[in-house]
Specification:
It contains three helices and eleven strands. With 207 residues, it is mainly β. It has a single domain, classed as Lipoprotein localisation LolA/LolB/LppX (outer membrane lipoprotein receptor (LolB), chain A, Clam).
Length: 207
């Protein structure tokens, strides 16, 4: 954990260009190019040039750095496993604050590379979601080339966790959320601009 934190703490902020794909029953969003912004400790935003902005709130986060913000958690060893044929160490994080929306985070860590390959987070308000990280040329910063975020749409409360802005007044047709359906959001990063400085106003939602 200390090695992972040290690697992630090299990044104070970044702007990244990427490709966003969504497979969510109640949201129709075409594959699109996005800009992704991050600033320590936990500011994160995804912005499409024309259309949709995603601003995580509460326990929802597609950014690994946010899970490590602060030291308000207890760590518990959870054994070993394999991901993609590589051995990983399982570590569970239990938040110490009762008002934290996150109940439990389980990390699958590649000890040799000091990289988190997968993270599963259970929240009070938005069920359980999972992130899978795939690394390449940005691994030395602890930043993935691709993130696959999946969640159960029945448990997920959209207004609590994410804010959407559309370029027109027409909203995507809502699908029934009464059934257990899996939602998947995938971001493939093309490049990162790291520690160049980002103002807080970037993370404001424009009404």
């Amino acid at each position: 954990m200390k090695k992972v934190r040290l690697k992630l703490e090299l990044v104070n902020d970044y702007k990244a260009d990427g490709l966003l794909k969504t497979d969510v029953p109640f949201i129709k969003v075409p594959e699109s190019k996005v800009s992704v912004f991050y600033k320590r400790p936990d500011k994160f935003k995804i912005k499409r040039e024309q259309g949709i902005s995603i601003v995580p709130k509460g326990g929802f986060s597609m950014n690994l750095n946010s899970l490590f913000a602060g030291n308000d958690y207890t760590m518990i060893a959870g054994g070993m496993a394999q991901i993609g044929g590589k051995p990983v160490i399982i570590i569970k994080l239990l938040p110490l604050k009762e008002d934290n929306d996150v109940v439990l985070s389980t990390l699958y860590i590649d000890e040799k590379e000091a990289l988190v390959r997968k993270a599963t987070t259970t929240t009070k308000n938005n069920g359980t979601y999972e992130m899978e990280m795939f690394y390449g040329k940005f691994a030395r910063w602890g930043l993935p080339d691709k993130v696959i975020f999946s969640f159960n749409t029945k448990e997920y409360k959209l207004p609590k966790g994410v804010t959407f802005e559309y370029e027109t007044d027409e909203k995507p047709a809502a699908a029934s959320q009464s059934k257990n359906q899996k939602g998947v959001v995938e971001i493939t990063y093309q490049n990162y601009f790291i520690n160049k400085g980002i103002g807080d106003n970037v993370f404001n939602v424009t009404k």
